[in-house]
User: Fold these one by one.
Assistant:
Number 1:
Amino acid sequence: TPVRLGDYRRPAWSVDAIELDVDLGIDATEVSSRLVLRSDTGQSAPLRLNGEGLELLALALDGQALDAHAFRYEGGVLEVDGVRDGSVLETRVRVQPAANTALEGLYLSGSREHGFLLTQCEAEGFRRITFFPDRPDVLARFTVTLRADRQRFPVLLAGGNPTGVGELPDGRHWARFVDPHPKPCYLFALVAGRLENITRDYVTADGRAVKIVIWSEANVIDRCHYALDAVERSMRWDEHTYGRNYDLDVFHVVATHDFNMGAMENKGLNIFNAKYLLADPDSSTDDEYRAVEAVVAHEYFHNWTGNRVTCRDWFQLSLKEGLTVFREQQFSADMNSVPLKRIEDVALLRRTQFPEDAGPLAHPVRPAEYREINNFYTATVYEKGSELVRMLAGRLGQEGFRRGMELYFQRNDGQAATIEDFLGALGDANAIDLKPYLAWYAQAGTPRLHAKSEYDAVAREYTLTLSQQTRPTPGQPEKVPVPIPVKLSLFDRDGRILPLRMDGEEKADGAERVVVLHKAAQRFVFKDVDAPPVPSLLRDFSAPVVLEYDYTPAELALLLTHDPDGFNRWEAGQQLALLAFDTLNDSVDSAACKAWCEALAALFEDRQLDDALLADLLTPPGEIELADRQSEVDPSRIHAQRQVLQQRLAAHMGADALLARYRDLSAHASQPLDAASQARRRLRRRVLELFALLNPERAHALAATQYETALGMTDRLAALGVLVRDRAPQAAAALAHFRDRYADNPLALDKWFTVQAQVPGEPALAIVATLERDPAFTLKNPNRARSLLGAFASTNPSGFHRTDGAGYQLLGERLVQLDALNPQIAARLATAFNGWQRLEPMRRVVARRALETLVQRQGLSPNLSEIIGNVLQH
Ligand code: ARG
Ligand code: ZN
């Protein structure tokens, strides 16, 4: 039965304090807990604690061992009679870390001999460690004592401040941690094993001396320096931007190769998937460096948006995730480039969230119900959630938003809050009613924003009519209008930006404006307009909507060429590429295709333009985005047509120009990280890819040389990608070399699997099947499973969606195997089936067959069944 938002009740019992005593062992760990209980309702409701798969060894209430009839433990709940306000409940349980393949609760990372123990509790993993009210609105003071063999577990860590260590008999030792900040149990963490560290001393703006410590296994500790710098940058940035200081004496960060998600913000003890913590030029690409910086910042920022202010219940997940993604986006933009970051984030939203919102898995940013909360760590909750915060921030302006955030922290510090608390604080601090924005949180589906222009030459008036419509989503047939802020400018036909005077205003004020569409439709009138202007709409992607406006190719080309803002320029180029794509059938170039190619060819010669922006301008929307606009999707055809589109572009630019630019970009000495070098590498890769469409043989020779001479992973992987995707004769040798060179580097090896899983079309399936037999392949490691199966099913549409259904069959079989090991990962991979209803009929039939086979399997986890059931709309 699903949990419903409307059924929320305050907890009958809360926990003032918890003392945990953990006696650590690889096969068996014993956890003793002492809870001081508080009755919140005043009534003597029975105490109900969550506990999953716990072997109960002892149970005592107020010092008395409990009789078998005084408690019941079944169905994941321990019910205890006779508890009073102030009672102390003591439990002792045994858990089995090494047998835990779900990587939730306490588990082993790495081998039994050399690996280490760690925990993952969000969302509901703490109940696999001990009995507790496992809900985020129960905040308790944690005291944690770890005991273990000193040889096997020299390092013992838990969240909070360290308060003592000591020796025990038989070569054992102990360490204690006290967290002064009450926290929900999902933020608890411990780590124990043989780990190395690097540290930095940091003093917060408000004067606290903090030790930042990054921990990893010995062989990768020298790849943690970039992350350490990123922690420090994040701390400084949050002090400057939001006045938020770190609040413990130590900040620990740990890397593991065995992790279900990206990372976790456990209080004082963040734990990271190694993929988002380790970085070095030889094994990480530029994109990966930025991802490390972004995830480090994201987890650190959670200390205030998530930990100090946490969520009342899991329906409010976006309260911390959407807000923290937004804060990370601001930070990354500040550290790197504002337009490039926005391009990256909007492209991600369109590639991941829009398809989610348009299919059977659509759900609101604040879902109204769920069965398995782990299935709701989605692009909608994270990425669309961030877009909603961005709209609010835009509405309030930089200072207003900061004021609102101050009030939010002031009111909710130490509390478990709701989305209403957030909007309330932002609004009250600015005397603005933000309640209308709640509709965005409650309603699934991407709104379509329709825009229409009218020009009155006599009155010199330009009228923009905006209207909105959101299509039905599962369980939500009726939609209401939401407030849509539309940032806009007007350009004249020479590409000059016009001053704006709206109806009712005395004089023009600025050249960029935000108009807000509150209703189903509204008109906005602009005065003193001498000729029909070209509107630039939804600038900076001011709302997460699909814009429908009848641009001519010439208008989009004008914006692509003249808009001073990099993001808007890119967006105009994307829209123009879509027009070109839609008119591609002709044997001659359509007007749109011509306009797109000509504008880009001209920009290619503009040496003022940033190389990285140029690389992005030269990249048309991806295959997933192209499919999202069609009703009968044929992924092979989309792949082929996108190739044709890029070929036209390459032909227009000319082989000579491309080759000359490639040479030019190759001539520069490559520096590891400065922005200009990264930009050159990005453009170099794009130019090589385009050149390969014109002269494959020559391009493959260049790629082979680039592979051999590359100084870092960015250039090496770019070259490998070209060779492998084109199935060039040089690919085999390069792949063999890479496999060998990185045999002991799992993160690099993941890329070796991925680049092959992404070979387009027919050959992909056989490649994947072969790679599954590589000794380095395993379903037990989430990164490895994702690097092959996830890359194949979720990022290679023309390879996965075969008319014979063999891609679906392969995924279906692996999902069943994976589900028995790790339900979270199985459920996540299963979302690759999203959108099957919109495939062309042949694929639709075989996809349905694969899904129906799956849904009939007995014993699937709740995680996987929920996804498969929803995808099938059962
Ligand atoms: N709170 C983490 C983050 O976004 C994600 C952890 C989610 N884990 C899970 N098993 N659902 O930073
Ligand atoms: Zn997060």
Note: The mean pLDDT is 97.
Number 2:
Amino acid sequence: MQKYYLAIDIGASSGRHVLGYMNNGKLTLEEVYRFENNLIKQNKHLCWDLKGLFQEIVNGLKICKKQNRIPTSMGIDTWAVDFVLLDKDGQILGDTVAYRDSRTNGMDRKVGDLISLESLYQRTGIQKLNFNTIYQLMAVKQNHPKYLDKAKDFLMIPDYFHYLLTGNKCVEYTNATTTQLVNLKTKDWDYELMDLLEFPRDIFKAIHMPMTVVGSFRKDIIDEVGFDCQVVLPATHDTGSAVLAVPSKQEDFIYLSSGTWSLMGIESMKPYNSAYSMEHNFTNEGGFEYRYRCLKNIMGLWMVQCIRRELKSKCTYEELCQLAKEADDFPSRLDVNAEVFLAPESMIQEIKYYCKKTNQPIPVTIGELAACIYHSLAESYAVTVNEIERLTGITYSGIHIVGGGSNAGYLNELTAKATGKEIYIGPVEATAIGNLLVQMMKDNVFCSLKDARECVYHSFEIQKLI
Ligand code: LFR
């Protein structure tokens, strides 16, 4: 009988249920369900609709049942840094505020009063992003101290969904490291740091590694979806999963996980937390079997997604690429990592304003806007490649571009030109694949990550651009 594994991969703009199974030695994927995800305004804050998302998780499970393809195991991954605080009855305290919300403004100073930036980086190896969990928790402490007083558990978003499915609270390692509260050396919660910040240490429970069994479905979930299933922890941070699926045959490679964010970096068994890496804001996120993802967050396709939404444009991302290509010689460039692009009221106005302020031609058409973004992204990738090579002292021959954004052909071409590297494109569904690989390693389908990556290499078409 065919054995199926189910990855539920939820990104900032959509989620999907992807079944994976082996077919003639190849990993085969089938998307059984897809749903939207959007930021919503709640009590003046940008929030996630966790209730709605959980309903979608259940809806997709019901479809598996309907198709009579019951997975052997399943696991959920999402974006990082966001969390819930649960009270003694397992109920969420407060709104589920999203990381793009402005509640973290000024929180870096509050944290900075208690611990220096250098010291925080030394302890955690995590880059400074104003939306890191540490700053979000500081905002809760400032504005809603009662939530922290009442909290019994801290869970990241995928942990919370796993809890709703199984009744078991289980914090997963790769995502926990993005809180900036995990110690780089001990690879465990940094309780000293929590004391320093006056965060209640007892709400941060034991951290578990990918491949840990969380449990089986609760009775009410079994009744609703029509089957029971074992929940196995994948790398619950989507980027952690995506990087697992990079089909590299070489030890040393640069990856670009391309989606709402562009995450560019390397995988390493040792962290890089020198003064140079701090200055260039490289992070060391925790990975499978305690690997590190030394990478940088670059604003990514978020900017294009916003423009498309703002114009209520029906054009596909391929069409957008085409329009951008037609405006290829539009000369303006943006600092894609400028804070102003994180969550502007209007991305279009913000870009126009930026060009005006920097005395550059102002883009008017959608093609010009997209060209301006794509060129700026490609240039930012090139700078990052140079920084990585300086950081590690290694010259890399190629870059693996994985994830939904690897479909943006024009951006790939610009990236090849700007970096001068060989570009390997795909797989597009890297995040779901990485999620599945961990579950399949747990079930001994693959005996190691090397083995699993080899299978990705043979199972999916990888395009090469030189
Ligand atoms: C990508 C991602 C990035 C993280 C950002 C915010 O989806 O997970 O890795 O920095 O979202 O959580």
Note: Residues 110 and 138 are 7 Å apart (CA to CA).
